[in-house]
């Protein structure tokens, strides 16, 4: 038991030290000026533009949070949110944040990532990245929504997305 505890503590210490070193490196790195990572990785010609998106995901809600989200909140108070509409490319956050991959050349891999439940993202023309998920708490929790499939169907396309920003 002692050996197992020692191994776990060493693993946690290594992760903590590595996190600290990465944070120090981030402080030294020059700030990136706007725009997406690897701008040479573009969407297909028929995948929409910022001025003319290929489609839409989500409907603009009347209020930031639905009743199920409010009811699920701590003391029935979810985090502050506001209704927004953004235009950008549907990406998988795992490959984009780790490797900078997106666009038509990444469509097969990224689609597999989303099918494997990796987080869904939206990459704007200016380089902002949003994590996308269904807003309604109970249906999302219970697997009763279709948003993930819509994101998979629109992967590597530029679309307009409406929802709640928290």
Protein described:
- By secondary structure, this protein is an alpha+beta fold.
- It folds into two domains: 1-31; 55-165, no CATH class.
- The chain is 37% helix and 19% strand.
- It is built from six helices and five strands, in the order αβαβααββααβ.
- Strands 1-5-2-3-4 form a five-stranded mixed β-sheet.
- The protein is globular, with a radius of gyration of 19 Å.
- The model is unreliable at 1-31 (pLDDT under 50).
Compose a concise summary of this entry.
Helix content is 37%, strand content 19%. The protein has 2 domains: 1-31; 55-165, no CATH class. A 5-stranded mixed beta sheet has the order 1-5-2-3-4.
Entry keywords:
disordered N terminus, 166 residues, globular, alpha+beta
Written as H for each helix and E for each strand, in order along the chain, the element string is HEHEHHEEHHE
What would you report as the Rg, rounded to the nearest angstrom? Answer: 19 Å
* Domain module tally: 2
The helix/strand class is: alpha+beta
Helix content: 25-40%
Strand order of the largest sheet: 1-5-2-3-4
Strand composition percent: 15-25%
> Count of helical segments?
6
Question: Which stretches are low in confidence, meaning pLDDT under 50 for 5 or more residues running?
Answer: 1-31
Mean pLDDT across every amino acid position? 84
> Count of DSSP E strands?
5
Q: What global shape is seen? A: globular
Through-space gap between termini: 43 Å
Largest sheet: 5 strands, mixed
């Amino acid at each position: 038991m002692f050996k197992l505890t020692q191994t776990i503590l060493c693993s946690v210490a290594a992760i903590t030290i590595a996190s600290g070193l990465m944070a120090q490196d981030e402080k030294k790195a020059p700030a990136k000026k706007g725009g997406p990572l690897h701008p040479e990785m573009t969407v297909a010609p028929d995948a929409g533009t910022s001025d003319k998106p290929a489609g839409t995901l989500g409907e603009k809600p009347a209020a930031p949070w639905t009743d199920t989200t409010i009811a699920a909140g701590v003391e029935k108070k979810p985090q502050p949110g506001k209704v927004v509409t953004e235009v950008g490319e549907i990406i998988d956050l795992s490959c984009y944040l780790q490797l900078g991959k997106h666009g038509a050349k990444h469509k097969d891999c990224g689609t597999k990532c989303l099918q494997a439940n990796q987080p869904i993202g939206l990459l704007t023309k200016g380089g902002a990245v949003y994590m996308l998920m269904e807003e309604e708490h109970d249906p999302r929790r219970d697997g009763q929504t279709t948003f993930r499939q819509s994101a998979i169907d629109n992967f590597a396309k530029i679309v307009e997305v409406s929802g709640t920003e928290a």
